[in-house]
What we know:
The structure holds two protein chains of two kinds.
Chain A: E1 13-18, H1 25-38, E2 43-47, H2 55-63, H3 69-93, E3 97-101, H4 104-113, H5 118-124, E4 133-138, H6 141-148, H7 169-191, E5 194-197, H8 202-219
Parallel strand pairs in A: 1-3, 1-4, 2-3, 4-5
Helix pairs in contact in A: 1-8, 4-7
Chain B: E1 13-18, H1 25-38, E2 43-47, H2 55-63, H3 69-93, E3 97-101, H4 104-113, H5 118-124, E4 133-138, H6 141-150, H7 169-190, E5 194-197, H8 202-218
Parallel strand pairs in B: 1-3, 1-4, 2-3, 4-5
Amino acid sequence: MSRLTEKHNLKGTLVCVEGIDGSxxxxxxxxxxxxxxxxxxxxxxxxxxxxxxxxxxxxxxxKKNLLSPRTFSLLHAVDFADxxxxxxxxxxxxxxxxxxxxxxYTAFARDVARGADPQWVRQVYNFAIKPDLAxxxxxxxxxxxxxxxxxxxxxxxxxxxxxxxxxxxxxxxIIFQGRVIREYQKMVDEFGLVKLDAKDSIxxxxxxxxxxxxxxxxxxxxxx
Amino acid sequence: xxxxxxxxxxxxxxIVIEGTDGSxxxxxxxxxxxxxxxxxxxxxxxxxxxxxxxxxxxDDAKERNLLNATTYSLLYAADFTDRLENQIIPALKSxxxxxxxxxxxxxxxxxxxRGQDIEWVKNLYDYAPEPDLIFYLxxxxxxxxxxxxxxxxxxxxESGRDVGFSTDFYKSFEIYQNKxxxxxNKMKQEYNFISIDGTKSIEEIHxxxxxxxxxxxxxxxxx
Lengths: 224, 223
């Protein structure tokens, strides 16, 4: 059994956004945060790979291409575990609305795309709490690349160059992110991710997310 | 699931010395290394928590008491993985005798004492090859405690202060080391440790270890 498949009964509300780079996650989460704050809610925002404990090490190791699929996976798990125990769980206990830019699903998608056993990664993250709302922004690899690589080449790990899929970073990016997307799509059913079309307008997506969150908050007796 | 019972198929030999802090592991490792080298075998020694990738992060985080049970487990697993992939397995493939000061049994003992589920910890290490020999230096707790206090002194994490057993430093240390020993005792059977009485003299212990290693070497596996 895993906490990831059971409803939590903490006071707070956990919302996460998922999807590959360039799918518009952060824009949507920022809009959501501003709305919640202006409505006077207690909001905490947390981002993937940002823990004080480890994120500098991970970034440096990425720059030097030092990571294998396994160490890549474990270092991101350290980051998540640190933020989970220091920020996410205490905030949920205290009744905050926690907004997470990427959650354990990012690890499930990326690590499995790198060849990790799906059950192995899920076991590593089995301490994570199931979000009240998990939104997945679906986009195709080509559009994602056009958005993030407008004026730079894809980075080594983001293109999955460690997997030696292709010597061309652009081609590698398309193949690797295609794999990541397939993993995300499988998780829509497995974890009940809410799938939104990343190609919809910013406004359309934001309206939908607010509607979903409102329902969840109202069910908990929180007016907004 | 776990691949713990899997013997490796590499050319080299994987030999592990386990035991709690202060049990004399590094002294024995050094002696064993010299004996092997004297016989013209290629030997590589690798110690716990020495990866280029992460070892200094662990030291730094410990210094600032930044670790909780989960990040503690995961950081050590990352350190181990980096050493396994970059030192241990390449050396085994090239036919070296790899001598290890601690192996994943250390993680199993320490993490379980910190309250982690043992299956969760085993999952982190499930790809580690099974050693050819595992020596365990068995020490009574009272002697261990004196040894540690007399050498390195009481350390925050090695006293399990992070677990909160007791606010009394010595008491916490005693409880923590006892609990670690309990875990090692459970593993003795499960993983076929060659348990050696750690109160014997350095030379006596070395002779016992050498005899075991020699048995394998004389069978000609490294020729």
